[in-house]
Design a protein that fits this description.
The complex is a heterodimer of chains A (215) and B (114). Chain A has 215 residues and is mainly α. In chain A, 66% of the residues lie in helices and 0% in strands. Chain A is built from 11 helices and no strands. Classes of the chains: A mainly alpha (215), B mainly alpha (114).
Chain lengths: 215, 114
């Protein structure tokens, strides 16, 4: 429950729970968390121009509930309104993500212990399936695809040569480097932060924005 | 153990919060060098794919030596990936993956994890 309230980062929580269970050292878990959540830097930088009028204290609180989902919802909302909407941000981040996520965690805490021999029910496959599913959601171009494939391949080789933790970190560092070698074919793949292309890149499926930037 | 995990959660928060707050609180961060932005955009897919691949393909035995693993989990994760890519529905993908593994293990066609 503490993970969901304090960390509030789905992929990192999944990873941490999986690796705490297998006895992975904390420094490796923390490094993986930092790597997994590095993408939030992009989200916060992209939202910054929209939320520059919000007092610093509230922006600091907004940061804690900034996730993949709240970013996508908020950007779509701001673009649709053609102006920032602080209340919309809170509704997306707290109402649509934070509260449901923590209620679901609470349900898991209450009910999870009642399941005898979870492996018999295939529960152990949820972690890798969730990771690859979340990765698919982040793949919007050829570069991301190459980074993911190389990250997975390098990760497995390095894990076999050293340990799973070394493999994952190595894959997470090397994959993007190889991905950068792929030439960007259009603006969507390397959309500058805060632009229309960037907003579309992170928007909900089916959303489309006009080319003129309202800001 | 529980208190230890709260400490771990706080440490994870300590490395997560700055990535969320920097852009919102530090002016001009949206003008990072393009190469840095491009790299950061690729880190998420690479780490997540590495996590999935290592989880499914590498097991560590009692002797602490990692070894290559082939099992029904490969099929389950691939089916899940296909469903998410095609339908965009992560929950459906997870249910399919769990069902594949649970049914094959119940039928004795796949082994329980080590």
């Amino acid at each position: 429950m503490a993970f969901s309230v304090i960390v509030f980062a789905g992929a990192a929580q999944f990873a941490a729970v999986g690796y705490v269970a297998t006895g992975l050292a904390w420094p490796a878990i923390i490094l993986l968390t930092a790597l997994l959540n590095a993408r939030h830097l992009l989200y916060s930088a992209a939202l910054a121009p929209w939320l520059s009028g919000v007092p610093v204290g509230r922006r600091a609180m907004m940061a804690h509930v900034l996730t993949d989902e709240s970013f996508a919802l908020t950007m779509s909302h701001f673009r649709r309104l053609r102006r920032p909407d602080e209340r919309g941000y809170w509704i997306a981040a707290i109402g649509a993500v934070f509260i449901p996520w923590n209620l679901a965690t609470l349900a898991g805490v209450a009910l999870g212990a009642q399941i005898p021999e979870p492996a018999r029910f295939g529960i152990d496959v949820i972690f890798p399936a969730a990771m690859i599913g979340l990765a698919v959601g982040l793949i919007t171009g050829r570069r991301e695809l190459v980074a993911a494939i190389v990250g997975a391949g390098v990760g497995v080789v390095a894990a076999l040569m050293a340990s799973p933790a070394v493999g994952i970190v190595t894959g997470g560092v090397v994959g993007p480097l190889v991905g950068l070698l792929v030439p960007a074919r259009d603006a969507r793949e390397t959309a500058p932060l805060g632009t229309v292309a960037s907003a579309e890149r992170f928007s909900l499926p089916g959303a489309h924005f006009d080319d003129d930037d309202p800001r | 153990m529980t208190n230890d995990l709260v400490v771990l959660a706080v440490l994870m928060f300590a490395v997560t919060y700055p990535t969320r707050a920097l852009g919102l609180l530090a002016p001009g961060l949206d003008r990072m060098p393009k190469i840095v932005v491009d790299y950061l955009q690729l880190v998420g897919p690479a780490v997540l794919a590495a996590l999935a691949a290592v989880s499914v393909m590498v097991i560590v035995g009692d002797d602490d030596v990692p070894s290559f693993h082939v099992g029904i989990e490969w099929v389950a994760v691939f089916v899940s990936l296909a469903i998410v890519a095609r339908r965009g529905n992560l929950l459906l993908g997870l249910i399919a993956a769990v069902a594949i593994v649970a049914i094959t293990r119940a039928a004795g066609l796949a082994a329980l994890p080590v």
